[in-house]
Amino acid sequence: MWRSLRDELHPGGFELVTVGLDTLGDAGCRAFIEAARPTHPSLIDRHHVLAELFGVINIPSSVWIDENGVIVRPAEAAPAPPQPTSGPRLALPADAPQRFVEIMAEAAKIRRDTEAYHSALRDWVARGAASRFALSPDQVIERSRPRDADKARGHAHFQLASQLETDGHHDAAVRHFREAHRLVPDSWTFRRQAWSLEKVGSDALARFWQGPDPKSPDAWPYDGDWLTDVRKVGAENYTEPWRP
Amino acid sequence: MLLRSLTVSRSEFEAGTGWTLKPEGACQGHVCIPLSRPAGDTVDVAQVAGDMGMPLVEAAEHGLWALGPAAVGSRALATAEAPDLTLPDLDGNLFRLSSQRGRKVLLYAWAPY
User: Considering the domain boundaries, does residue A107 fall inside one?
Assistant: First the structure.
């Protein structure tokens, strides 16, 4: 989807740079990248430097950067390009656990401003600085995520947790992930990353369970989980409305 | 930025934090934070962290530290000038965002979970 948009716009001076945010690095991202067969740079961000450097709090999201290396739109939700034909919807197997049925139902309610976002993107690629969707430097700073000293500290705890997990110190990692969640409560990626490391089962869906194992619910080391947290805010508020 | 030591080279510090060390201080675009001592070839991380208001969190039992972002103003971005993001691809080749000057770039964050 993104690749065909990139290939269409590339001759006009546009590049797509995709970044997979995952503590598991190549091992977590490889199958997805190889399936997408990217023609553009496709990078691995093991410790979520995109959160620290650009204020990314959720995926999928995007940052637009002009020809001079100046950000013209800070991190915001980036819906997939509109599809020319509506293909078959992703269907769960009939014997899928109830949790996945519920996750899919909530995910379907997540707001996606596909048309507004993608017409703005095409306008910017065609018109550059003259596009009304290219924000001024002051607007870019003002629209980037709020960050106080606690949030800055939470980012350090997250990176520490991610490296500790990589080094095999899972219990220590959990302690720092929890601290990151407490200090940066608006980051979905910090939570989803930590939840995804508590695999339930061993199949391809193990990292998407993102909640307590029904066989040992007391072993879940986090306060929230995907279903509980999404229902708490309402799936329709999971991403902020796109604004011109 | 992750650290195995509290003394790092200037280039490691600059790549890890997105701040360039200049005579006038640590700078991102036109924003500069003065430092109590000018940085040399090596950076005393604890000192610079104190000067810049960067949180330094430790897992001392594992010989590991993490330096968080400077809280400049009240926003994630101190400037609209993009930092020179440097990350590897699947083959380990390092990509630098600055290699794309002259093109419009859509930086897209995704995750396999």
Answer: no
- Give residues 94 to 123 of A whose Cβ lies within 8 Å of B: 121
Element (H, E) at A71: strand A71-77
Task: Using a CB–CB cutoff of 8 Å, tell me whether A73 touches chain B.
Answer: no
End-to-end CA gap in chain A: 23
How near does any CA of chain A get to the CA of B110, in Å?
5
A-proximal residues of B, 18-47, CB under 8 Å? 18
Per the omega criterion (within 30 degrees of 0), is the bond before A241 cis? no
Cβ–Cβ pairs < 8 A, chains A and B: 234
Same structural domain for residues A6 and A87? Answer: yes
Per-residue pLDDT of chain A (244 residues; tens, 9 = 90+): 899 999 999 999 999 999 999 999 999 999 999 999 999 999 999 999 999 999 999 999 999 999 999 999 999 999 999 876 555 556 777 788 899 999 999 999 999 999 999 999 999 999 999 999 999 999 999 999 999 999 999 999 999 999 999 999 999 999 999 999 999 999 999 999 999 999 898 887 899 999 999 999 999 999 999 999 999 999 999 999 999 9
Whether residue A10 is contained in a domain is answered as yes
**What predicted TM-score, i.e. pTM, was given to this entire model?**
0.95
ipTM over 0.90: yes
Tell me, yes or no, whether A126 and A182 share the same domain. Answer: no
Are B75 and A142 a contacting pair at CB < 8 A?
A: yes
